[in-house]
Amino acid sequence: MKVLNVQGICKRYDKFYLDDVSFSLDEGYIMGFIGSNGAGKTTTLKGILNVIHKDAGTVEIFGKNIDGNEIALKQDIAFMMGSSDYYPGRKLKTISSIVQRFYSNWNQEAYEGYLKRFKLDPEKKVKELSQGMRIKFALTLALSHNARFIILDEPTSGLDPVARDNLLELFQELVEKGDKSILFSTHITSDLEKCADYITYINNGRIIESTTKDDLLDKYRLVNGSEDDLNGMKEDMVSSKKNSFGFTGLIETVKLKPYKGINAEVPTLDDIMIYYAKKEEDNAQFNI
User: Fold this and answer.
1) Exposure string for 49-71, b = 16+ CB within 10 A, e = fewer
2) Where are the alpha helices (DSSP H) in 100-241?
3) Residue 21 and residue 6: Cα distance in Å, rounded?
4) What are the E-state strand segments in the chain?
5) Average of pLDDT values for 120-144?
């Protein structure tokens, strides 16, 4: 079953254009949504949730168009932004008592379980929490109404490595039974290499790739060699950088010929993002 089916979302701003964004997510999987700051991640998520007016395109969640079914569908959707904040002078228990009124399937037992898991004191005020604890509280609220589709925007931002690792374990636990799905955007791509099944990569408002994590990493190779080697293969590459030893660059695996003296290895998600960003920079300079 498709939990999410995004087709042709467009949104134009004065200095940014979300251009024909399309991808989908099946039930029971984790999809990482990656891209540099300003690439269109948050705008896409807002479009999916109907928070902004889309110029074009459709969004189906659980097979139903978000337009016309928004209120009912959002009972089964959890959403959290890494920058979520609440009234600083309010106690956590006061905020949760307000939030739970919006959900017919609020689960108080689950809520209390997450408070305990994240070591959150409901008697504390928001202003008494660290940034990391505020993120954990926002996540606690998001996960306490038995949502089947969880959308997270930079959920690990501001957390230390141990807290991030614990959170990734929680995400994997949530999808274990196959009845929940997670879409989360992040610029910390090492998190996705630990837990994501699928990756959707957006760059400058356009989807570059949307596929399984393994297929995405298999599609490219990070290569390095001498400057003479670069001259012979530059046209085949996504982009490259010169250095004191010669060059490093990204190339599609199918274009990697047996070049003499070239070393090739599997890239990281960061590598793929870096060299596509370099391609955009090179094209912009060429068109000036």
Assistant:
1) bbebebeebebbbbeeebeeeee
2) 108-117, 131-142, 161-175, 189-195, 213-219, 227-233
3) 7
4) 2-12, 17-26, 30-34, 56-61, 64-65, 77-81, 149-153, 181-185, 198-203, 206-212, 220-225, 237-243, 246-252, 263-265
5) 91
Q: Residue 203: how many CB atoms within 10 A of its CB?
A: 19
Strand partners, 266: none
* Cα 19 to Cα 7: distance, rounded to the nearest angstrom: 11
Angle between helices 131-142 and 108-117 (to 10 degrees): 160
Segment 136-147 mean pLDDT: 92
pTM of the model: 0.90
| Whether pLDDT at 256 is above 60 | yes
* pLDDT on residue 8: 97
Give the separation between CA 144 and CA 96, rounded to whole angstroms.
10
Give residue 288's pLDDT: 46
**C-beta separation of 18 from 44 below 8 A:** yes
Dist. CA 119–CA 287, nearest whole Å:
54
For residues 246 and 52, give the distance between their C-alpha atoms in angstroms, rounded to a whole number. Answer: 47
Interatomic CA distance for residues 114 and 185, integer angstroms: 22
Q: How far is 210 from 25, CA to CA, in rounded Å?
A: 10
Which residues fall within 8 angstroms of residue 124, CB to CB, at 6 or more apart? 91, 92
Average pLDDT over residues 243-258: 90
Q: b/e per residue, 138-157, with b = 16+ CB within 10 A?
A: bbbbbbbbbbbbbbbbbbbb
Do 155 and 93 meet the contact criterion of CB atoms below 8 Å apart?
A: no
Strand partners, 104: none
SS3 assignment, position 201: strand
The residues, ordered by sequence, that sit 6+ positions from 285 with a Cβ below 8 Å of its Cβ are: none
